[in-house]
Amino acid sequence: MVNKFVFVWDFLYHNPMCDGTYHYYAVDLFKPLVKIATGLDIVELRTLKNTHGEEFSRQKFYDLSDYGKIEKSYFSYDITKIKQPSIDYLKTFIDSETFVFGFEMGTELKNILTDLNINFVNFWYHSWKLFDDAFLMINTNNEDIYKKLCQYKTQEEKFYFYATYWKYFTKQKGELDYLNNLEDNSCLFVGQTLRDKSTDKDGVMLNVLYFKKELEELSKQYSKIYYIPHPLVQYNEEIENYLKETPYIEKLENVGTYHLLMSDKIQKVVGISSSVLYEAKFFGKDVTYFYKPLFKIDEEFSLETFISVFHDYYNPYFWADILSVIMKTNLDVENNIWFSDISNKFRNINHIYYGYQNFNENYRLKAELETNLNKKVDSLNCATKLAEQNNEEKLLELKEIIKLINRKKELNYKYLKYRILSKLTLGATKKRYNKKKSMFKESLTKIKNFEHGIA
Predict the structure, then answer these.
(1) Is the distance from CB of 368 to CB of 268 less than 8 angstroms?
(2) Which of 243, 262, 405, 419 is the most buried (most CB within 10 A)?
(3) Residues 336 and 204 in one domain
(4) Which residues are registered as beta bridge partners of 5?
């Protein structure tokens, strides 16, 4: 009988306080919903005390196996070195009467919990980034829970629907035009960070250098291979030299990954294990993983299968339903999502935008404002240069321009006003309005030229 809920991060891989790996805030959000559904609180493993009054120590867990030095994060451990005393120590905190809420737990830890007859649900941010919010996929070692989760599974057609919408949203605004110089029938290699759990193969972090032969073969089928680096990747001289020295590869910078997926010029997308490859198939691309996907999504039950669940975990009934297979729950709880609007709720907690900023109206407005600000900075730099020239004639022109810039909004309004009136009138009145229209247009042209650095 389950009598305790415990949140477990992947302590075999990460120290709990490492940035970006300890996602308790997500599980914490579910606490009141789970409490209403079950009557139990979710507690954290790292603060949980065992029967000896000890708090859990990741270091002690490894010390009991005489493991030696461990790293704080992205620790490529050898599971065969974990000895029974470490497992016995873990059992003093969680046992078969414990239900685990995990976040980004790896295969080895899930196997340990399964061997201890401990049921769990394990969350991971979904590979698909283009819904109205960042959302979660969930996996479990309990097949009955898996069957329940399948009832909440997001339809595959929804991914295609959103891919189509965003493609035409972007295309109709002309925002793909800057990719017209890409070669037809080209291939895209999606880069990843140099330390990524999903690229860890037997303790080696894979990168593009491990797949030179595969890329050479692809170069015979595609006109060009474009390489796009991960936005957070660190500089690596060996990788950079390879990209520069390989004639059939071209590195792209300052290009949106999703824009590339939307481009008809890109026919194939390859990579090591990047979630972008999962997304690419919904944009109609041929996809190849050079290593393997980190997880199976919406497939048959297994320890690695995740079910796509979009926002139902904000509903207390979801938890009452899911957990009813392992304990008594309150199925009379409210059956409603507690957010009235689910847009960007998870995204905004930890700023998890992952490229979605290209499609978010607030981000688009921010980019527009920054562009305008840069224009003003350019104008200021131009004004400074004129002042430094100590050219009296130019300085007089500058003062006139500054006055016009301060009236820019008013000038725009009056130009539009007289432009419309000149079309609605005849004779002398029309001539008078045309004259005013030309006068305001001339002032706006001066401002425009100045903002482009033309004195």
Answers:
(1) no
(2) 262
(3) no
(4) 42, 99
Instruction: Name the pTM for this structure.
Output: 0.77
Phi and psi, residue 19, nearest 5°: -60, 135
pLDDT at 202 over 50: yes
**E strand map for 60-131:** 98-103, 119-125
pLDDT at 452: 64
Cβ pair 309, 153 in contact under 8 A = yes
Region 296-300: mean pLDDT is: 97
CATH label of the domain that carries residue 237: 3.40.50.2000
Instruction: Give 226's strand partners.
Output: 188, 250
Q: Is the pLDDT of residue 199 over 80?
A: yes
- Domain count along the chain: 3
Residue type, 283: F
Structure tokens at 398: 């500058």
- Residues of the chain above pLDDT 90, percent: 63
Instruction: For residue 169, give both structure tokens.
Output: 């949203």
My answer on whether 118 and 27 are in the same domain is: yes
Residue 314 pLDDT class (50, 70, 90 cuts) = very high
Structure tokens at 295: 């997880």
Tokens of residue 160, six digits: 């295609």
| pLDDT at residue 197, as a whole number | 78
Whole-number Cα distances in Å, 246 to 166, 230, 255, 293, 424:
33, 19, 20, 27, 63
Residues 386 and 374 in one domain: yes
Q: H helices then E strands: how many in the chain?
A: 16, 14
Domain with 182, as residue range(s), is: 177-289
Residues 231 and 320 in one domain: no
pLDDT for the residue numbered 214: 97
Neighbours of 449 (CB within 10 A): 12
* Boundary (domain end) residue, out of 289, 306, 331: 289
Q: Is the pLDDT of residue 365 over 80?
A: no
Do the beta carbons of residue 221 and residue 267 sit within 8 Å?
no
Tally Cβ neighbours within 10 Å of residue 271: 23
366 versus 186: which is more confidently predicted? 186
Residue finishing a domain among 289, 313, 334 = 289
Spatial separation of the C-alpha atoms in residues 9 and 24, rounded to whole Å: 8
